[in-house]
Structure formats: C-alpha cells, structure tokens
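Teaching soon. Got one?

===
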Amino acid sequence: MDHRRFLLDDHPFRFDIDRFGKTEFRPAPTPLSGEQILECTKDLNQTFGKDPSRKKPANKRRKKGEPLVILKRRSIWFQLPYWKDLLLRHNFDIMHIGKNVSESLLNTFLGTDGKSKDNLNSRLDLQALGIRSDLHPIEVEDQLYLPPAPYSMSPAERKLFCQVLKGVKFPDGYAADIRHNVHVNERKIIGLKSHECHIILQHLLPLAVRKILPTIVSAGVIRISNFFKKLSAPVIRISDMKSLEADTAETLSFLETIFLPSFFDIMVHLMVHLPAQAKIAGPAHFRSMWPIERYLMRLKGSVHTKSHCEGSIMEWSMFTECLTFCARYLHGESQLNHLDANDEDCSTTPFFHIIGRGLSGKCIVTLDHKTWLQAHRYVLFNYYNIGPYLE
C-alpha cells in the first residue's frame, strides 16, 4: 500500500520481504505546490455545475501502454488569485475520516455482509500479490474455504463484543446512547452517527478488543485510537505532530501485516497526511465539521414543508432570531434594574453590556495605563506558572 515510503530510511519494515512481498527504498512523495498543480492542469477544459445532457460520464479503463493521468480536473478555487499560494488549500476533515475508519474496523471485526473488508476478493488479492499464504483461499469439495485471519472472531466472541458495547453507560451529555444501535443477538452494530463512531474509536474499541482479539491486533487498534486522541487534543505542539507523522506511517505499515489490502482505502490512507495539516492549520476543533453538521441538523429539523424547504428554513431562522432578540432584551432589562442610576452602563444598550457573571459585592474599577502596567508587571514577577513561558 506504499505506506512504507513514509518511514525512516533504515526502518526494518522497508526490508521485510516475507510480510510485504518486496523491499521499499523509495522516499516519501513530495506534495505538489499550487504553481505545479496549475501547470499540470492548464490544458484541462473543466465545466463546473451539472451536466446539461444529464448523462453520467463513461468510466473508461486505461489501456495498456497509455500514460497514467493523475489530475483530471482543476478545482474551482484556483480561480481565486491567492489560492495557489496557500500552504493548506484543502482541509481533510478528521470527523469523517475517523467515522470511516471506525466503521471499517467494526464491520471487519463483526464480519458484516457487504461492509466487511475481509471477503473472497480480498483473499484473492493476497494470492495475486504472493504474500501471506496462510490466508489464501483453500478449495474444499468444489467450494472455497477462507482460513480465519488474526482479527476474525467466533460467533460467541462477536456476541461478547456487542455485549461490551451495549453495556457501556456514559455521563450525562458526554455521548449519545448507543444501546439502540447494538444488536447482540444479530451480532450487528448499525446506524451509528459521527460522534458515536468518534467515541467508540477513541474510548471503547481498545477496551472491547483487548481481551477478545490477539495482542498483535489489539495493539494496532490501540495505536489507531491514540492517533485520533492526539489529533483531537485542544492543544498541540509542532514537535508532537512531527513524531506523530513517523508513528502514523509505522502504524499503517504495521496494520498492513494484519489486515487485507482492501482495508486500506483512501480514508485510511489520509491518516498519513493529518499530522502535516495540523502543523500548518493548528488544532482540529477549529476546522472540523462538528459545528457545521450540528447546524445542518437544526436546519433539517426546521423543514416541515418538503416542497418549500428554503421557505421553511427562512421562517425558522426569522422566528429564532426574534425569539433570541426578545430573550436578550428581557435579560438585559432585568440586569439594568440592579444597577445604580449613576453608573455609565445605564445609558448603554442592554445587549451584551455585561461580560461574565458578577460576584457578590462587586466593584467596577477602571485602570489607567500606568496602573495597568504595574498590575501586569506584578503578575509577571509573582505568578509561578508563567516561568516556562518567560524562559
């Protein structure tokens, strides 16, 4: 899967022929700059919007000897003059990547029909690559038998796995109740939302597989869980992201020795690039899809007439704004009644005129510039926790 290209030059995985089928000496690919992408796509005739003929484009296979075309379209954002100069032109959303990785792991462990990454075609891929002969299909009485993989569970183990997830209880407001999504008797987990997959991947999955699956498999799952935990942290360091880049390439290469090639789709591969984007754009919660998805859910809930969706959303938005306006006005009036008539705040608008919650016996003091400098200097010299920042 070429994840070994991101490893250090002397990493043992690069020379492991038994588990990977060949050695890997190529360096990691260098991302293209905006100028290079413009040069590669300058001759493309791209038509944005819906196709007037409403015909789906023909999926043509590349003929033998035909050159490989990587870039088939130019993003519409390149019409902006500054787009080519951005360090981060497209942001990979950690929410959807985590959801897809979580679903791939759950469906593969439970052997869900149509969603598991372990099937006959995946085993035939191993046979075509000539690696991991212990997992190749075996013909028994005109039928193909698939030997159990390290992550395969028996029906009793799958039932126990589902019971562990179904019996989990969360603190109030921490996560949604996933008991309705876990079906123990059918040994299935269906209908999970993004945040539920986020909780399962980072907190529950390592606990559920630790005593059921072999150590080598549970170690890989724990490494994936720790990867998403570090990326989702509210505060990150550049040095941590650099070490996480190396750890991610090693983790994915380690998972290649456990899972089948079909497991490593584009969503799993994007884990390699998430630490590099975090070094440029900062913590994930500033650029994730969580607030957008929550707001879209509120908009979908406001639609009562499906033939006029926009009108329903607009009516709900106006009603919400009016209600918020009235609530803030009444709240501001109640606060104004407690102020002294000589206070300056009485002449101001009641909206957002007080920030925070006042303590009992409060006293408002306006500092001049000299007093503010003295207070600031006092904090610098007397606050213990500021020492590392001064150093």
User: Anything to note?
Assistant: DSSP finds 14 helices and four strands in the chain. The first helix runs from residue 17 to 20. Residues 334-353 have pLDDT under 50 and may be disordered.
